Amino acid sequence: MQAYEIMISPVIKVKETDTVRYVIEKFIENRISGLPIVNERNEMAGYISDGDIMRYIGKHQYRIVDPLHSVSIIKGDYEDFEQKVRKLLELNVMSIAKRKVYNVSWDEEIETIASILGNKQIKKLPVERNGVLVGIISRGDVIRHSFRTFL
Asked: What's the whole-model pTM score?
């Protein structure tokens, strides 16, 4: 089985010029947790996930101290939470997105796709054909298509 047989298409995506506000609106509207980011030629420019947003929000809020494995968490007062969220909403998506994105060709075999998703510990894999984003495959897509004949 190949990528084009199991991928979701068309892909919900955002442009590299969009704001994080727009990304979060897409997350909420579509009940998703990650989106590919494309340039004006529909080529992959990056990927933004809920994890990227959480890392930004949580950055510098807490400091973990570990004197000989007696862990303490100290709350920082570096920036008010609401201020941080407001600031985040207006950022360009590329300022917090991953620029190195694993992807597969539209004719890649499902075994390779499963290996990449598992070994790289990622949830979704963009699918490209001739350098252009044409679909996306999630862990769930691989599981559904791999096991449907056995259940």
From this structure: 0.81
